[in-house]
Amino acid sequence: MYSQGFCSPSSVFKSHFIRSSQSREKNQTNREMWRSKARSILLRCSIQSSSASIQNKVLQSKTLTTLIESPPFHFSRLLSLSTQNPRFYSNDSNVNHGDEINVFDETPPLISPDSLDPFSVSYENDSQIENPNFVSQSNDTDTTSSESEVELAVDEQIEVVDVGKLESVLQFLQSVSSKDGSIEESLEKMNLDVNEEFGLKLIQTPNVNGHYLISFVKWASQKDKSFMTSRIVDALVKAIGDGLRPIQKKEVYSLWDLIKEIGEKREGVLNTEILNGLIASLCMLGRGKAAKEVFDKYEEFGCEPDGNTYYFTVEALCNRKIFDGAWVVCDKMLNSGKLPDDMKIGKMIVSLCKGYRAKDAHMIYLMAKETNKCVPMWSVNFLINGLCRKSESVKLAREVLQGLSGDSRKLATKCFSFAVRALCQYKDIEGAKELLFEMIKEGPAPGHPVFNSVITALSKAGELEEALKLVEVMESRKLRPNIYTYTVIINGYVKGSQMDEAIKILEQAKKTHRKLTSDPYHILIRGYCQLEETDKALNLLNEMKESGILADENDYKDVIRSLCLNTLDWETAEKLLEEMKENGTSLSGNSQGLIKAVKELQKEESKAPQESIAA
């Protein structure tokens, strides 16, 4: 503890000696602590400078390098040990002994200006350093040693890409033609030292012919078996099917031949993502059978299909209208429980519905709901519409609608309308009414099309009182029945020969609407003509004229035929014929011939009595 050569001749100086020794010991401890911190900073600077020098050397030699992303293990371990040693801290220090000083941090810890003074740093040997070859006793040797360590670590993990040769190969592949002979022979003459990084840089360069890339990969793998890696094959698949240029059929099939060869001869190279990319390219080409062939090879190549695998395969098959094969793939997907994302599920449902496989699409929908997938509403619309095409699947559509809730139910007005109309079409009127009142109770609010569908079905079935009750429900919900609603009910009464009730509905329609169309009048006119009540039919025709409603050819035709056949009033019929000509409408030749025949018949009948009197 005491300096050599010091001696105390008397007790007077002894106390002064002790105080001086304690002060020097404290200063020595502080110097050791700051020496450790300074060495850490110097080491960090040396590592940065050495890394920069290595990069400069590589760039000057026209090479591309992939630098290590993190320091070697012995770097961090050594620095951690040196900075955590409590011997580097004085007893009076406020520094937390548990904190590490990491020389790889972007912001170094604060250091006092005195500690950066080169004269305050001791160059003694430190017993705390485990590897004396890594950090030496001086700053100069510190820098040299650390630089050599970094160079060694980097050299062990770098794959060098010769930029000059890479540019030569790219220029060759972009300019070569099929008439230039074998590509492999030209590549051999270049004396290339290929590795994975070289291959990736080449493959990822745009605007290179896919055939030539495949030829290069085959040649490089023959030269070095380790060249064929998953990264190389994945990059090749993406380069051919990236969508930046039109996908070429021959390139994709050549790629498939290469992948088959790899799968048969090499294990562990192919993966699910690679095969998915190939199927996606075949899907874009519309090659359903080829996509199914790739799908069938997954197990043989040691790959497991995922949701994207099933999606691309099903889409490729549906594009070629191979719906039976598409359902086989869908069935495997349902058994595996691996579904694609929500949008792709929706597209699969739409594709199957377009192929009249709505029941199969419904099974995919159920699986999606079980796995908490959010199926897009536009695909649900397709599903409901597809299920409503057949009577046996309408109930499934109703089940789907009952499972909707929240915003999905609010946006499903068209879906409910499809289902109600289908139930009415297949004469399930009770089911349609139940669904209608379910909409009134839980939403979405039914509109005119839904009410009119049920009212039409009730009117055709002769349940006119029920139809009128629904009209009252419409009015209670502030929905004014439109002309079509009244026309449907009028038609029901006319079919039952209840003309008085039909006229009441017409009067009610007049109160609701300022101007009607010709449809209710046409039904009433035909009804009166069939009942041989020609005068009432003629009155309705005149009422149409007074109301400004243009009667069509059928209205005139029905009244004229009734006048000729029932009342033999050919004179009125001729007047109606003249009105038609004025309105720009024409009567068929048969009706005009009927008027002439009745006219001649009456003239003959009128001549017969006169001749008998004269005789």
Automatic annotation (TrEMBL):
The keyword Coiled coil does not apply. It comes from the Eukaryota. Keywords: Repeat. PPR repeats lie at residues 271-305, 447-481, 482-516, 517-551, 552-587. It holds the Pfam family PPR_2. Belongs to the PPR family. P subfamily. This is Pentacotripeptide-repeat region of PRORP domain-containing protein.
